[in-house]
């Protein structure tokens, strides 16, 4: 039996489903942060959110495709499960890292926007 096909047949669909699930979650919940960062400009926030979603898909599905190949010899169901767990574990860790990276970027952007707003408000409120 060709165990590589078994691993590929499980790995790719699970990876794509995980990527889509995480991406949709980030897309839906990230919008609120982006609207705040862009001072209520919903059109700009939605555009940036779609661009982030596209980049997220490209990076994660591209990496999953690159790591699809397995050079190890798989001779049993146990070997299939072990290879699959390494591949899926790697993808899950990468998705988690991308999630925290996105949160960090949102935090930094929001912080910068708040600093700008405080500075701008200070200048506006300063008496002439």
UniProtKB/TrEMBL annotation:
<feature type="transmembrane region" description="Helical">
    <location>
        <begin position="86"/>
        <end position="107"/>
    </location>
</feature>
<feature type="transmembrane region" description="Helical">
    <location>
        <begin position="6"/>
        <end position="27"/>
    </location>
</feature>
<keyword id="KW-0812">Transmembrane</keyword>
<keyword id="KW-0472">Membrane</keyword>
<protein>
    <recommendedName>
        <fullName>Integral membrane protein</fullName>
    </recommendedName>
</protein>
<feature type="transmembrane region" description="Helical">
    <location>
        <begin position="48"/>
        <end position="66"/>
    </location>
</feature>
<keyword id="KW-1133">Transmembrane helix</keyword>
